[in-house]
Amino acid sequence: MDNSIFENTQFPYNIATESSNEPLKILQINLARAKAATNQLQETASTIKPDVILVQEQYINNNVIPGIPQTWKTFSSSNQKAAILIPSPKLKPALLATKVNMVALKIQTSSFSITIISSYSSPAQNVHTTLQEIQEIISSLPEEKIIIGADLNGHNTLWGYRSNDNRGKDILDFILANNLNIINKPDALPTFQRNNSVGWPDLTLCSQSLIDSSINWEVLEEISLSDHRYIETTIASTVANQFYKRYKTRHGNHLRFLNTLGKEIYHLERKIKAARNSGELNNATIELQTLIINACNKSFKIKKQLLITKPNWWTEQLEIHKKKVRALRRRAQRAPEIERQARYQVFKKEKAKYKRHIKQARNMGWRKFCSAASHPYGKQYKAAFRKSVVPSQIPYLINGDPKGSLQKAAQNILDQIFLFPAIPTNYNLTTSTQPPDPPFSPQEISAVIELPSGKAPGIDGIDNLLIKIIHKRFNNIFPTLFNKCLHLSCFPDSLKIGNIILFQKGGKDQRLASSYRPISLLPTIGKVLEKLMTQRLTYHLKSTNSLNDRQHGFREGKSVDTAINELLRKIKTARRDGKHVLVLSIDIKGAFDNLQHRAIFKSLDASACPSNINRLFHSLLQNRKVTLLTPQGRATKDQKQGCPQGSCSGPALWNLVANEILNQVWPDNVHIQAFADDFVLVIKADTSKSLVEDTQSAISQFSSWCSENELAISTEKTNYILFSKMVRSPKITWNGYKINRVKSFKYLGIHVDDSTGWSTLISKERKP
Questions:
Q1: Which of 180, 250, 432, 458 fits 611 for a cystine, CB–CB 3.0-4.6 Å?
Q2: What sections of 463-588 are H helices per DSSP?
Q3: CA within 13 Å, CB half, 7
Q4: Calpha distance 480→18 (Å, rounded)
Q5: DSSP readout, 616-683?
Q6: What is the C-alpha end-to-end distance of the chain, expressed in Å?
Q7: Residues 524-571: pLDDT tens digits?
Q8: Strands 624-630 and 497-504
């Protein structure tokens, strides 16, 4: 493992490089839609330890593959008949394509990148449809290394059959036309066996460019509980990975860590005090981060990524039973012709018992797991309803180039998510002449540092617990740093680098940049400073009564409940007075990501907040960077607009800008409220004509504010509910686009419904 810190840059990217000593191992299996075969898969994987599993005809329930760990990365074809599973936590795949009958990923080994395809074609289906899908991927990747695991149900003597059929001929023509190599061995065991019928429908193919690599291919004797056998393919290139270090800081060695920091910390404290400008402060901050990282490397172990483990319900009795079933199958295969049928009957009966044994053990293990629950929404709840939210892998975007490295794909994602503003922002311009705030007090800093631990650290790997330990022993270092930042109006650049983690939005296309929510993991030292700044800004806004009461998000004393109650009260009152009521739900496209920095600066100046706090926020938003880590290294982009999702200040800065539209003068019959970036307008009127006119006027007012702040509305997601006995729906438009009327919409996790009147407006979203 390479413990280098800087990776050719002055910033403390605390990255480790890890390579396994084992060749890349790919397991291939048609699971025959069998639940038992899917249950068996995890145990087999824990024994064979594959990096990649290519499956066909997997068992599906509620659009997921039950029986496999939620930590496995899963990629499925559109028809869910083919999938690629990544049980190895070290492997970071990138989604290349999802088609009806196939799915393709690209992974990085220590020597090269390789595209892996899993595909299935039913005997009842025209095989050309599937071959065409594979063809499209191959054609887009000339000269690149490709391996294909597919059940194409074609007969040909080249892969084991005694004769050829038309499907087999078509498949062979496809193989030859694309200069592919058949890795299957003609004399191998059948990959399919059902009663007395055997076959070789499962193919493993590779591109010509991969044939120079040492490839091993074997049909395994492992029990699969499917009518197909496992196929193992190994390629002589190891798995390579880069990751940000995470230290085991909860398990002692704190005294050694503090002693390692030693006198250097006092030297750095003096250096920070002596800093006269932002350049000197930036350098001192990097030195502090580096000092802490070096002390961590000498004191703490690095958190290891989880290995592939057996299912928690697997028992020694099951292991013995599995070996017995395997032995009976072997005896049947080797038995003389006269005994073979009887031997197979014995094997089949024992296999059926083994299936029941697995089912009983799995159910018993599940009951035991659930009985140990100590929290109603703990890991048992998450396991039952698959509520764990796991980060997404890097995709190759639809409008991107499928050729090239994962690092290139990551750069494309950053370029499409983190856009640059049309007009460059002047970060040095502030007209604030307000009195400055006093320095941060020791009590203030200690209170922020004592916030709950457990949050993920940023690029330097320094977590909350380390900050607490350092502050307790060296209680001047952080106050000195933070107050020097306040004095110089400088937020150090090394504390503004966000490690981006992508989370896919539910049901969205995996290959569109807009389908991902980017969360920034920021350095913990920077998060403490950001929290201190945000508290000062919030205190100023509260003490000057500057925040509008109709903002319910991220406000002390406000909540989802207050927002819902206010909305209901407005609708109820208007309906009781006999008014027509229109409720308009407004969706702002990427509100946090697209918020312009100059809009924030304008709002900061208008708030009359202390001048040094104002300037420190200017510095916070300047020279920001975001980074995505791949097995080949980092992709990096400047962040010139938006509030980082995951930052302490983001919600407060958004509320500050949104305050402007809430504070505008609205007609008496128009009510506006917000929960962060979720805006709702409630318009009431005596007639349908005035309802439309007043709604259009309100839309025009809101639209003007959006234009001034360079925010865009999603007219597809903006809609309205009508509470009225009107026969015809009023025609509502936004800049020429029709706004749809709906019977209900989801607002802050609940459903607002017009079907039965205001008394039953809300129906809680049903828990699974």
A1: 432
A2: 464-473, 477-488, 524-543, 560-576
A3: 20
A4: 37
A5: HHHHHHTTEEEEEEETTEEEEEEE-SSPPTT-SSHHHHHHHHHHHHHHS---TTEEEEEETTEEEEEE
A6: 43
A7: 999 999 999 999 999 999 999 999 999 999 888 899 999 999 998 999
A8: parallel
- The percent helix, strand, coil of the chain (3-state, each to 5) is 40, 25, 40
Strands 197-199, 145-151: pairing is: unpaired
What confidence tens digit (pLDDT) does each residue in 196-237 have?
789 999 999 999 988 877 899 999 999 999 999 999 999 988
Distance in angstroms (rounded) separating the CA atoms of residues 117 and 138: 10
Residue 477 to residue 627: CA distance in whole angstroms: 28
- The SS3 assignment for 53 reads strand
pTM for the full predicted model:
0.86
Q: Under DSSP, is residue 167 helix (H, G, I), strand (E, B) or coil?
A: helix
Q: Residues 6 or more apart from 323 whose CB is under 8 A from it?
A: none
Q: Has residue 660 got a pLDDT over 80? A: yes
Decide: helix, strand or coil at residue 245: coil
Q: Residue type at 27?
A: L
pLDDT digits (tens, 9 = 90+) for 111-167: 888 999 999 999 999 999 999 999 999 999 988 999 999 999 999 999 999 999 999
Residue 484 CB partners (closer than 8 Å, separation 6+) = 272, 273, 275, 281, 490
Centroid of chain to Cα 673: 30
Question: Which strand (E) or helix (H) includes residue 35?
Answer: helix 35-48
3 state DSSP class of 2: strand
DSSP string, 276-319: -SHHHHHHHHHHHHHHHHHHHHHH-PBPPPPPP---TT--HHHH
Residue 400 makes CB contacts below 8 A (sequence gap 6+) with 409, 412
Identify the residue whose tokens are 């350098």.
283
Mean pLDDT, residues 41-49: 92
Q: How far lies 472's CA from each of 325, 454, 535, in Å?
A: 61, 18, 22
86, β-bridge pairs = 73
The residues that bridge with 53 in the sheet, in sequence order, are 27, 85
pLDDT-derived band at 378, boundaries 50, 70, 90: low
Candidates 255, 241, 161, 265; CA nearest to 203 is 161
Measuring CA to CA, which residue among 348, 367, 361 is closest to residue 320? 361
Question: Residue for token digits 């070096």?
Answer: 294
C-alpha neighbours within 13 Å on the C-beta side of residue 197: 4
Beta bridge partners of 120: 151
CB contact burial 74-88 (16+ within 10 A = b; e otherwise):
bbbbeebbbbbbbbb
Q: Determine the pLDDT at residue 763.
A: 44
Tallying the residues shown for the chain, one arrives at 768
Right CATH for 15-243 from 3.10.20.320, 3.60.10.10, 3.40.50.10490, 2.10.70.10: 3.60.10.10
Cα–Cα distance list, 30 to 48, 54, 425, 448 (Å): 17, 8, 56, 54
Q: What is the dihedral of CA 491, 494, 496, 501, to 10 degrees?
A: -160
Average pLDDT over the chain reads: 89
Domain boundaries, given as residue ranges, for the chain: 15-243, 245-304+464-487, 313-388, 391-418+489-767
Coil, helix or strand at residue 586: strand
Contact status, residue 151 vs residue 199, Cβ threshold 8 Å: no
Residues 263/224, Cβ–Cβ less than 8 Å: no
Query: In the chain, what's the furthest Cα-to-Cα distance?
Result: 101
- Residue 200 burial (CB count, 10 A): 23
**Roughly what angle, to the nearest 10 degrees, separates helices 524-543 and 442-449?**
120
For residue 766, what pLDDT band results from cuts at 50, 70 and 90? very low
Helix ranges, 390-523 (H): 406-417, 442-449, 464-473, 477-488
Contact yes or no for 683/722 (Cβ under 8 A): no
The sign of the CA dihedral 503, 506, 511, 514 is: negative
